[in-house]
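User: Predict the structure for this protein chain, please.
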Amino acid sequence: MGHREQLLAGARKCLYERGYSNTTARDIVAASNTNLASIGYHFGSKEALLSAALLEAFQEWGAELDRVMTAAGADQTAAGRLETMWSGVLESFSSHRPLWVAGIEAFSLAERMPDLREKLATAYQHARPSLGALALPDEAPDHPTRLAAGSFLLAVMTGLTVQNLLDPDAAPTAGDLLSAVRAIAERVGPTPEDGTPSGDGTPAGNGAAPRVNGVATTEPDPEPDPEAGAGAHP
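Assistant: Here is the predicted structure, written as structure tokens:
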């Protein structure tokens, strides 16, 4: 193993044990059995090394999650795939908790570290189509709806991370999340352009008033007067 690989391994160890902000260059040198000059030679700065180590750790976690999904079986339902994925994420909070802490810390640091922000954004871009396939496997990887589903699942994953770091006893289980998605989907219903149920559970067609955010924008058409209709014909 060369100095570059030693530095990455030492930086990952420091991320787990000390966190992103509390890790010094000397900590990494001690953990990797290298020297300060090696950091500058191979990475340019301690921050660049820690960013590379953090992304490498995320890739390692992602590979483990892929293994969990593969083990779940290709013929599983979308609901089963989502529940398996969330179960794997929840398990990782125990097995990789220091990594998740470092990740949340890195997200806040990315605001002032453009290089780190760019790398994390790239990681998210790669994750969207893969996560979207859990719900919409038949759509093309670049299909807007599949990418939107991936973004939604990333948002849930980030929120689940924060809740577990703050109050793990109150955080939802994988079953809770699946039940919530089902309840929300049932309430929202299909798109109203088809005349199918709208967000409040009433049909969007069949004389119903147009709705914006669930509020009627006009009064619905009145029911026809049977007597007036009868007298209009010979």
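The first strand starts at residue 211 and ends at 212.
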